[in-house]
Amino acid sequence: MAFQIRAVDTLNQLQIAELSDLLIACVEAGASVSFMLPLPKAKAEAYWQEINTRLQQDERLVLIAETETGEILGSVQIVLSQPENQPHRADLSKMLVHPKARRQGIAAALLTAAEAGAKTQGKRLLVLDTANPEAERVYERGGWQRCGVVPDYALWPTGGFCDTTFFYKKL
Tens digits of per-residue pLDDT, 137-170? Predict the structure, then answer.
């Protein structure tokens, strides 16, 4: 499947709807990304509306992976807004790839583009956390360093505790 990665300056209503569907599909597939099941469409849309606000306030970078026809297959965010004693770093957040589009290099391409975008914004250090062993492999292949695992850090979307692994990468 052919795709391209691009940064967006603002999210239109169609993109918010598609990103909401992406988020719901990932949570339904078991992604521990801060949401519990069931995830109503209105809640997912409210989340993306808030991200759109943060994007327009230059607090975030949002990258999307899309097909040639504009169908969104994945997204990732860089949280630029940090405490004043941490202006050199950012958080990589909400790496989402639609379950139907996985294992096609989308996550790795999003990761590379996110790192480049963060570097362009003057960031020298990125951090992230994940509860997904497949995602861990993507990060490790991308040169990220594992910091450690915190047991029972979050909940799975269906309930029950999950461990979370933390990573960092110097840019």
Answer: 999 999 999 999 999 999 999 999 999 999 999 9
Query: Could you tell me if 165 and 146 are in contact, meaning their C-beta atoms sit under 8 angstroms apart?
Result: yes
94 phi, psi to nearest 5 deg: 50, 55
Phi first, then psi, for residue 11 (nearest 5°) are -110, 125
Judging by beta carbons within 10 Å of its beta carbon (0-12, 13-18, 19+), is residue 88 exposed, middle or buried? Answer: exposed
Mean pLDDT for all residues in the chain: 97
Dihedral (CA of 33, 34, 39, 41) sign: negative
Q: Give the SS3 label for residue 61.
A: strand
User: What does the pLDDT read at residue 1?
Assistant: 83
**What distance in Å separates the CA atoms of residue 89 and residue 81, rounded to the nearest whole number?**
9
